[in-house]
Write a structure and sequence with these properties.
Blueprint (H helix, E strand, L loop, with lengths): L2 H16 L23 E5 L5 E6 H11 L2 E6 L6 E5 L1 H20 L3 E6 L5 H16 L3 E7 L8 H13 L5 E10 L2 E8 L2
Parallel strand pairs: 1-4, 5-6
Antiparallel strand pairs: 1-2, 3-4, 6-8, 7-8
Amino acid sequence: MGTYEKHTFYFILIRRKKNNYRRPQAPVIPAARINHQITASQVRLIGPAGENLGVVTKEEALRQAEAAGLDLVEVGAKADPPVAKIISFDKYRYQQGKQARKQKQTQKGGELRHMRITPRAASNDLERKLRQVVDFLKDGDKVEIQLFLKGREKANRDFAKGKLQAFVEKISVPYAVMTPIKFVGRGFTVQVVGKK
């Protein structure tokens, strides 16, 4: 391999590393069996309006779904007998996706945000950071406030702990302390969450 090919090869490797990212994934919707994919001989049938039609054979359920112009979708595969619903498959997939997005949003509300302060920070800087903490708590996020100590500041832990306590007490929205103030590595930390 000549020098040109060698350099080109390394350039391609570097380029691949830089462009190696993942696209955000859509919520995963569990695959459901429809119509003739259903393997059970009998199913507990739910009608198009949500009414329970009882336990029927798969062929009878398929006939009723075809008469209604809809699909037969297995919604409860683990039940005995499996639960199948007469519904448009597209509508079923839309409902499942909507439910998955809603679940993801409720889980996202508990995101942990970090706020770093120092004991020598000016009052206007602390006020700005305090406003950010209040915004995070209003959004429903958890906030970890870190007081970062450098060099000789580590010798005066009582002053630093008091500074962090004063900062936490200035939070204007109702909050609860998840973990009390503790010394960790290079300073003090405390986690707070907004009360609802």
